[in-house]
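Lab notebook: predicted structure, single chain.

Context: the supervisor wants predicted structures on file for every construct in the current expression panel, including those that have not yet been purified. This is the next one on the list. No modifications to the sequence; it matches the entry in the shared construct table.
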Amino acid sequence: MNTFSSLTRRHHEAGLTLVEIMIAMLLSVILLGGVIQISSGTKATYRTNEAVAQLQENGRFATEILARDIRMADFWGCAGNISKVTNNLNSVAAGYIPFENGGLGGTEGGAGPDTLVLRGGYDSGIQVDAPYGPLPSASIKVPAGNGLDQFDIVMISDCTSADVFQISNADPNTAGNLAHNAGVGSPGNKGPAGCLNCLSRVYAGDATVYRVQGITYSIAPGSSGQPALFRNGQELVDGIEDLQVLYGEDIDPPATAGSGSANYYVPADQVSNMDNVVSIRFALVARSYGNNVANGQTYNVLGTSITSNDNRLRQVYTATIGIRNRLP
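Prediction complete. Output recorded below exactly as produced.
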């Protein structure tokens, strides 16, 4: 009896067999593999979500700023269009803006990014005060506290004509005088032939002064090493690697003042007349900072299918914007 109990106890106290250990190790490896797979999937999901958030932030911001500037392009006050505007800036000096070329321009980049050029007035305007003139060389009188600074480029406009010039005096905000002398600032003013400091005419109380600007959008390497959207040579938002632009022309006869609707959209080098462009269609391609998010992604840019050759995630932002100052 005692012998049988001793044998039974020794049998119950026996260790694991080699087969049992191997099975336990196999199960552990399977479980560990599952944990690693879940962890890897979680990291991949996090990277993707982070990349999508970055693409949305950069793309939406860039689209909003670009669309706002397009809407306001080609504004020349009551004068209405560039044919009534005299550009008094010195065309041979640094900083010259060719307003006489109109409110729109750009270049076709072919396989690379395009550029887009927008010009015109952009604020609510300041009414001209008396006394007026009496000569075209006289300073323009406006209310004090106007917020203008020396060397600001402005436009004075009524419903007959407009003049673009650079403010030459040092105290336009406090004095309420806007001088336009030649040879001061950069690019400075040139004045018409025979009258160095003159505008094209004397303006009266029905005239308004606006700030004007020339804006060029382009793509170039940014400060972080990522491609970026630039506005007048200053980095606006990084992570934007492409800008493609199409111009919508309204080809209705000028006598009908146009329909205000584009008949077709073409690249810059195929526009027959920039004065007939009433809307801009653009596409911005935003890409992720990380190069471990996607693989061989295919996306469409204004009708062209593109397949990436890296592991970045990309998103295309497309908009068609009417140029308000050219619509009926």
